[in-house]
Amino acid sequence: MSDEGQRLPVTTDQDVVRVRQAVRTFSVAVKLSLVDQTKLVTAASELARNTLVYGGGGEVVVTRVQNERRAGIKIVFADEGPGIVDLTLALTDGYTTGGGLGLGLSGARRLVDEFEIDTEPGKGTTITITKWCR
Amino acid sequence: MPLSSDEASRFADLLKEHAESLTARWVELAGASLRGRLSSAELRRQLDDLRKGFEQAMRSGSAHLTDEGSAELRAQLAEISGHRARQGFSATETAVSIFALKDAVLEALGNGDDAGTLRDYVAFSAFVDRAALFTFDSYVQVRESLIADQAEQLLELSTPVVKLWDGVVAVPLVGTLDSARAQVVMERLLQTLVDTGSPYAIIDITGVPAVDTQVAQHVLKTVVAARLMGADCIISGIRPQIAQTIVALGIEFGDIATKASLADALRYVLNKTNRSLNTKRTER
């Protein structure tokens, strides 16, 4: 595992599992607490599945980051799918277009420390999340 | 000390000249360490191919195994180690097969006791050493890919439904719960409920590493389906970190009973049905 990060394609269900495993490995390496590990892995699982199901597949990049005080993990989920038309609606608990629980996107936001979403209809979606060690 | 080009060509001649006896001796030496797990005809075929590979590499004047002229030899070595790795031979056994060539060649060199022969032999020996190390590397690579395949198969392990107590069945979920597996789990559970006439089912998620919305949805659907059939479901194996994650995600299990451990869940069901593991308590 290198500090430059790990790039993983997301085109099948198996890839979502691989993303989870990679995120867990990184989480252990930066010594996130068990609860934070689980939260980050779960958030990554949600967003990777969104990339696959709604974005039509894409790419995930897991990187170790460091600021003045603490270490953390940054994960970028990028797809070139249809994008999100109404972001506010998409971030509403319980709203879904795919028959899920409608908690993946909104729930993932609550599971991490930083959550950034960049989307444009027809251009795709890029979501960046960061979790810091306490 | 790398092989000089005339050393290499001398060895190429040697490998060609003594082809018969060399291969025979090599098969004998390598076969001893394989303890008959590979038929000697197959071993002979492999090693004779390898001998030709070495001969060719020497003929092209390769001083190193990484040289262009050794490409063929490298491919042969990789193929043999891949073969051996899959058949369950150890890395040492594979490498020893290659090292055995040195002994065979030494015997073929005869009793030339001058310094030149010795120098030749040392250089050739170093070349064989690198070849053996190369098989080590390829062996490890093949084994790693085998392990990766097995890890993927593990993900697909089926989930049994077990009868835990009279009227109580349990589903220990282990690993990743994707849609296909969730479907299998649900079908098995519902069928077992009918077959055993059990009014209680415990779904244990201790072995599920990450409970995300998809896993939760599958579990919830299974619970609802079981309820439609008149069975009560209890979800057990909710560890502290999973509980906190579920809360943050905003998943609600509603009025479904959840317990930290399978034992708690069983105790809960037995209490509910006024039964106990301890007969004294039942009398109370």
From TrEMBL, chain A:
Keywords: Kinase, Transferase. Coiled coil: none annotated. Pfam families: HATPase_c (PF02518). Residues 35-134 form the Histidine kinase/HSP90-like ATPase domain. The keyword Kinase applies. One of its GO terms (molecular function) is kinase activity. This is Serine/threonine-protein kinase RsbT. It comes from Actinoplanes lutulentus.
TrEMBL record, chain B:
Keywords: Phosphoprotein. Residues 158-269 form the STAS domain. Pfam families: RsbRD_N (PF14361), STAS (PF01740). InterPro entries: Bact_StressResp_Reg, RsbRD_N_dom, STAS_dom, STAS_dom_sf. The keyword ATP-binding does not apply. Transmembrane segments: none annotated. PANTHER family: RSBT ANTAGONIST PROTEIN RSBS-RELATED (PTHR33745), RSBT CO-ANTAGONIST PROTEIN RSBRC (PTHR33745:SF3). This is RsbT co-antagonist protein RsbR.
